[in-house]
Amino acid sequence: MPVTIAGMSETVNQPGILASGRTLGVIGAGVMGTTLIKGLLDAGLVSRRQVWATAKTQSTCDAVAENLGVQTTRDYRELVATAGIILVCCKPGQIGGVSAILQESGLRPDTMLVSILAGVSTEKLESLLPGEHVWVRAIPNTPCVVREGMTAICGGRGVTAEHLAIAERIFSSVGRCSVVEEHYCNAITALSGSGPAYMYLVMEALADAGVRVGLRRDLALELVAQTMLGSARMVQDSGRHPASLRDDVTTPAGCTIGGLLMLEDGKIRSVLARAVEEATRIVAELGKAAKPAGQKQAQ
Ligand SMILES: NC(=O)c1ccc[n+]([C@@H]2O[C@H](COP(=O)([O-])OP(=O)(O)OC[C@H]3O[C@@H](n4cnc5c(N)ncnc54)[C@H](OP(=O)(O)O)[C@@H]3O)[C@@H](O)[C@H]2O)c1
User: What's the 89 CA to ligand 1 centre distance in angstroms?
Assistant: First the structure.
């Protein structure tokens, strides 16, 4: 049931994700950071006054403060000790500097740290920040922006079921969330993290195909985007195998089987598999490149 926090006009749903008097900090208020803040605020999991955010430039800080109504600052050292949860949403190459600031700013041992950095393992995160700090690693994707994200989460050293439950609530505010074992993370980054880019490429190609057979481009794109959305919803809602759903569309001697055979001739299955395989290999390499503060980051 929603409750009003004393002195605040907003409501926070019970049970909250923050202990009394603690804050939620977002380090790196870019696309993903601000998306998460919006999701959390709209879901009523935190109030504006419980949230602070930081970015590299003052212009980003100003824009986030104006758009989201939360406290922002480039120098967040005084806020670190107030945090119950910190979402680390900067780029992987910035984690060395960020962890150095956390270390010197009185980060409490019970503060839950959540990283969305692509390819950076909990073992790597723990090594960058001495002490018994708790890290949850998350792999979200950009459809979080429209609340249709897919996020996988896993825990590092000392993470409890309660930590994971809180992280699940955070990412469920912007889509779906699953708890996974960490050894799957590179594959997940390559599949659902990079996945929107694959889908956009397929949509672009299909829209071109529509133009080829005489449709206006705007109409072709609308047809393709809604068809992709609806097909995804059919898979989710029916729980049926995609092959079985495909059979429903494929009438004997009809046009769909002709189109499907052309896709098979073009080796669509192995091309997609090889794409995900290559992305998995690359993300593993990127993860190895994250360096502690003071060491030069590989580009
Ligand atoms: N986008 C995706 O599809 C996706 C999916 C999964 C995971 N991720 C991960 O999400 C993270 C953020 O991605 P994004 O797309 O949101 O990037 P983004 O829009 O570029 O946001 C990064 C933010 O970090 C800020 N920043 C830079 N250096 C900083 C520092 N030293 N301390 C604090 N903040 C700093 C930047 O500030 P300024 O704005 O002032 O430069 C910017 O606001 C990345 O690690 C990425 O691997 C992204």
Answer: 5
